[in-house]
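Batch manifest, entry 17 of 40.
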Amino acid sequence: MLNAVRSAGPLLLGIALIMMGNGLQSTLLGVRASSVGFGSFVTGLVMTSYYVGFLVGALVVPRLVQRVGHIRVFTALASVASAAVLAHFVLLDPVAWAAQLEELQPKLRAALEENRDFETPGEVSIPLALTILLAEGGDPDGVAQLAEMTGLSDDLDPEGKYRLYAAFALGKVGSGLAGPERTTASRALVRLLNESPDLGIRVIAAAGLQRLPTEEGRAALVEALRDPALELRGSAALSLGELGDPSGVPVLREMVQVAAYDSERGVSAQKWSLPDRVSESRCKALLALSKLNQAPGPEELRQMADEDPDVNVRETALRLLAEDSGG
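Output type: structure tokens
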């Protein structure tokens, strides 16, 4: 699994930076607009204008692609988009801010159409990257294509890495989906959770379902609580906790105990071999129990805060004690 991640590291890093930048920009613009005194009404118009840009881009960009090709159009629009981000901090004018470049989205669609047919594993990475970018922007076709790519054949994805990336991306964009897109994404992850022979993919699918609240997804997570692998049933319990479902409380309590990880290592020395992973898992379980109002009692938390060998668990226990006592 680690080798698969390393082989596609540059691709994943590039997509992560684009997604992070896009998300941060949208958040920052709202804050910046308020700080320079645009007012709520004007700020709303500016943010709404981005969707007008989607419509205009869908009409204009395909013609540009036909005339000069998608590579040149993408290069030009990407350059202008980069300059536009900087212009937000130079031109404190709501009209200038509204002129954002959603033309990139239809450009991505055009590029995806040219790369949609792939016959070998080496041809999958580009359409997968384009699909992830479209899905991140809430494009219905992008979400549908990404869900479809979670079902790649072993011939096209012999190591399972592309299905892993697609599952991770669906979970990442899940919180922003609604209606048919949410259903499509949820069903794709449920299928992976129920049917994939790859434990890593199943764990990612279980984690992603916490951002896709559907009855089908919840039922699949409850079923996964009975899986023999602590990693999978723990991921399912954490997702159920995020959804406010207490079905996973027994598993969460199991995850707090060091003995659970010792037992897993008794089956395979490779399982939970990194102390940091065990520490993170135990802390997440404690926080999930607290969110469900099922945290250990004050006496047990004090004992953990005083005696647990893991400093992170001690700090988490102290935090829960402070919250319980009102600060």
